[in-house]
Structure formats: structure tokens, C-alpha cells
Write a structure and sequence with these properties.
By secondary structure, this protein is an all-alpha fold. The protein has one domain. The chain has helices at 12-20, 33-44, 50-57, 66-73, 88-100, 102-112, 116-127, 138-149, 153-159, 166-194, 216-222, 237-250, 259-269, 273-288, and strands at 29-30, 63-64, 136-137, 202-203. The strands form 2 sheets. The protein has a two-stranded antiparallel ribbon. The chain has a two-stranded antiparallel ribbon with strand order 3-4. The longest helix has 29 residues, at 166-194.
Amino acid sequence: MRLQHGAAICCVAALCAVLSAASAPAAGRGLTGGEASALVETFAQAGYGRAFLRTVFRDPRVRYVPNLVRLLVIPPDFSANYARFTTQAEIRRARAFRRLWRTRLERTGEAYGVDPDVIVAILLVETGLGENLGSSPVLSVYASLLLESTLHRETFTGQLAGNPRRDHYMRRLDDKAAWARGELEALLAMRRNNAVDVCGLRGSYAGAFGIVQFLPTSYLKWAGSGEDKRSPDLFYMPHAIISAANFLKAHGWRPGLNAEEQHAVIRHYNRSSVYAGTVLAVAAHLNKNPHHR
């Protein structure tokens, strides 16, 4: 999913090659006491208890990752290779997945009024059917964006010295920081209400996670577990299938949509028209050979 959910992020499967070069420096460093305290005070003002906030922001797994901040604020020149998802090899993989999860997919499709082939197509494009989940520390991405716009603002500004687009990137940093604050609040709610280990979440460099690549705010709105009474786990395939279906239904998918209407719904998942077209193309390949299911 993309950065505005609709919103989440560009598919992890398509980004792996670009981000492999950044994986080492992305480790960053642990938060200083001052950084952790600044985050605690920020969210204490939103009504969270300081003791609870300290357990989150002083967790050693929460890190300052300025290289990932830079990727978000000054994005690399990247074009997703969506064409690879409609190759014969990828369609064969999608068909095998469709057969493996046939019962769950068809049960979910019937319950939510969503085409199971579209669910499979989204999972393929987002994370290669769960094979490429991302390794960036999700909470750290958002915390670092917030810190970069406040405590480390001067340093970030200095790094842009001589850049003709400095003012543009500083505005973009502020926009990203405001967005990150909302996602951090969602992560805190996930920790408090759903007992999710948010400090250990790994995902895309832009903070999306799980097989369906939801943002934290998307998790709170659309993640589902069906008849399973546990909190939704987006790394667990049955929950991922249900969550994708729930998202599509919430954004207008229903039986009988024409191609243009289907395209419009999928663009809530990712604003790219090419992405939506690729999802529908994969689904059409799957639907074309139902005897392979």
C-alpha cells in the first residue's frame, strides 16, 4: 500500500532491490535519554501514561534511523517493476497459492463480497505472497521522523545546504512528521489495546507491515481475524486474507462492479494506476483458468 491509505506504501516485493543497499545503515543507533524523554512528553500530552510510554520508547529495539528518514523525505529515483507480476512464473506461483488457500479464500470472498482472485493478486504484488515482508523497524521509522523535525531539525537542515530544493524538503519533513505522529499514536493504541509487540514490528522502510502491508492506522481500521477471537495478526495468512477483503469491502468493492469501478477501489489501496491495473491483470489471469484452482 502507499503512504496515504487509502494509504500505505509501495509494495515491498518491488522495493527489495532498492532497499538492500540501505539495509546496513538503516540499523541506526539506540535512542538517547533525551530523545526517549521527548517522545514520552509528546504523547503524555495526548493522554498516555508516562510509565506506559517509557516502556515503549526506552525499549532497546527502538532506534534512531536517520537514513530511513532521508529515504522518506528525499525519495530515491525509483520506478516499481510491476510488469514482473504478470510473468508466467509469478502467475504460476499465484495459482499454487490460490489452490493452497482455496477454502479460506473462497469463504472470505463470500463473507465480504470480494473476488478471491483480487485478494491473491494484492498479496502477490504487495509482498510476493508473504515472502518479502521488509526488515525495517516500524516504530523506529515513525519515531525518527518526529525527532528529525524537532530535536534534529538543525542537523537535517545543514545536510541540505546548497540544495536548491531545501525549502521543499523541509516542508516535506514537517508533513511526514505530522503523519508519523498519527501512526505512532496508532502503534501505542495497538500496544495498549491489542497487546501487539509494536517495538518488534518489522516492515517496509515507510512503516507498513505484514503480508498485506498495512500502516498502523490501517490496522486499527481494517485488520480482521474473522471467527478467530485473537487480535489480528497481519503476519498470519488467514488474518491477512481477511484484512485485505475487509479493506476492499470498506472502500466500495462489491459483486458486479465494472472494470473502472474495480480500478477505483484498488487505488484506495495504492494510488498508482499502474498498481491497480497490475492487480486486476493478475486476477484476470487467475480467473481465466479456474480449473487450475
